[in-house]
Amino acid sequence: xxxxxxxxxLVLAGxxxxxxxxxxxxxxxxxxxxxxxxxxxxxxxxxxxxxTTVLGSPNTFLCTNREYGDFILDFEVKVDSELxxxxxxxxxxxxxxxxxxxxxxxxxxxxxxxxxxxxGYQVEIAANSKDAGNVYDEARRAVFLDDFSxxxxxxxxxxxxxxxxxxxxxxxxxxxxxxxxxxxxxFRDSMTTRGIIGLQVHQVPKEKYKPYQVRWRNxxxxxx
Length: 224
Known about the structure:
Elements: H1 2-17, E1 22-23, E2 33-36, E3 41-45, E4 48-52, E5 60-64, E6 71-79, E7 85-93, E8 99-104, E9 107-112, E10 118-125, E11 135-138, H2 152-155, E12 164-171, E13 174-179, E14 182-188, E15 196-201, E16 213-223
Antiparallel strand pairs: 1-16, 2-5, 3-4, 4-16, 5-15, 6-12, 6-16, 7-10, 7-15, 8-9, 10-11, 12-13, 13-14
């Protein structure tokens, strides 16, 4: 009887997660994740990953040790109003001599990155921004990759002080996002088609510093 009950529990747990879905965070530890780029802190608290700013730290990222290509990523996030954040996807980590050639304002430029710097696609998390859900090219082209000026519903989808549900879907060169079920970014770009997923704690200027926090839970991914 005990064996049957144990097997039933496993089946129910799998069905609750959904067919093909994988948990990125087990709710108890940061196994499978590594911190890059800065010194902000990450801890597990009540089945939630809590990121906290550190005075003097640059942008910091808690990154998966695995890379992903085509996928659907779901997560929930809650961020202090004064802090903006983001989740990297299909992103890379700079080596000792990483120099990027990118086009900015119609001109090709070279950008040398410090070792361990995370760069690439980032879905925006921010209460005081009309670009929450847009995709920013972190440390690379340094621009938002979609135009939200004609998307009033997307501009209002993020809820300040609340848990917000995000979805990111990547398939080939198609990248789409949703915030609380509202369609947000929808564009095509093929600069990188595979990379890590990273949870950002943004740097805070010294004159405005406080130990701000951002929290993530229910992170799951389904590879396509």
